[in-house]
Amino acid sequence: MPTKVLMVCLGNICRSPLAEGVLQSKLPKNKCIVDSTGTANYHVGTAPDKRSIVTAKKFGIDISQQKCRQLSKSDFETFDFIYVMDTSNYKNVIAIAPNEASKQKVKLILNEVDSTSNLEVPDPYYGEMEDFEHVFHLLDEACTIIASKIHSK
Question: Any idea which architecture 3-151 has in CATH?
Fold first, then answer.
């Protein structure tokens, strides 16, 4: 049975779509199912930010077919791991978690790189292309570690 991983940011248009694409690129589909979502409903049904699409494409990953959606309580039943991009979204996800077991699934994604850092993936939305590339590299490092853990199962 494949491991199911959910990536979460605020609007599901910049960081979490990149994280979804990066992790998917590192594992065979039969090993892992990856999805992404936002805690807010600003962009439901739309494609990721064009700058995220361009950044992913630069590194050989196509996220253009993804559609933004909002986090739901059923996600806690569906997914084995829920990775959030920052502490604000962490708090929002924990607030709707139905029970303690669900809360245990939620982690800051950059804690995979340094488990004590509580570092956040910066939101590149109001930034430039280099901000999207910086986010891509942060997520690539974290997703390499996540993929390694899933692959060794």
Answer: 3-Layer(aba) Sandwich (3.40)
